[in-house]
Write a structure and sequence with these properties.
This protein has about 190 residues and is an alpha+beta fold. The protein is built from ten helices and five strands; from the N terminus they run H-E-H-H-E-H-E-E-H-H-E-H-H-H-H.
Length: about 190
């Protein structure tokens, strides 16, 4: 789960840079941006699996998905339930497929395969439109992706996000929550 989070934050970081929902990249670049060690061969397979899970896994947002259109119409602008996949499309292109493809297709992927001679495979995916619209219209970015990627532990990262949001909600330097409530958000294993 922690690995998948890093890859997802890396995808968001690439989106922030390109401002394009369609992302074409090689695995090494994605791992670099995500803060994952690209020199470990198992991480390439883990990255591929992570991207595949983001495409196939359905996420249900319950009472947290912002709808700018509904707000402009005066309706309830927080959807009760919203079900999406993080990635709406996913395609893997090998060097062999690239060489066999038409000239028009090659123009799309030229700069990625010609970056250097070691690239054997690239990935072409699109972030789900509803997810991008939610991020752009909501303006809920209390934190920078770089800050999140610097935190190695997923529990610590979730606490950082939660505490940052609370700080903005309370509009002050002090956050008032019970210890029991905070402890319930920390996932501990007693094994």
């Amino acid at each position: 789960q922690e690995f998948d989070e890093k890859i997802f934050y890396g995808i968001l970081k690439i989106y922030e840079t390109t401002k394009n929902r369609r992302i074409i990249t090689d695995y090494a670049t994605l791992m670099d941006v995500s803060g994952v060690n690209k020199n470990q061969p198992q991480n390439i397979h883990r990255t591929k699996d992570s991207i595949e899970r983001m495409r196939k896994c359905e996420i249900i947002f319950n009472g947290v998905f912002y709808d700018a259109y509904a707000k402009s119409q005066g309706d309830t602008f927080i959807n009760t339930n919203k079900s999406i996949n993080l990635l709406s499309s996913l395609k893997t292109i090998t060097i062999q497929e690239y060489k066999e493809a038409s000239e028009h297709t090659n123009k799309t992927y030229d700069k990625y395969f010609n970056k250097h001679g070691n690239i054997k495979e690239i990935v072409d995916f699109t972030i789900h439109e509803d997810l991008v619209n939610n991020m752009e219209n909501k303006g809920h970015k209390y934190f920078m992706l770089e800050d999140l990627l610097k935190i190695d532990n997923s529990t610590a990262r979730k606490l950082f996000i939660m505490l940052t949001k609370w700080r903005y909600w309370d509009k002050g330097p002090e956050i008032t929550r019970t210890i029991k409530f905070l402890a319930s958000r920390i996932h501990l294993s007693w094994k």
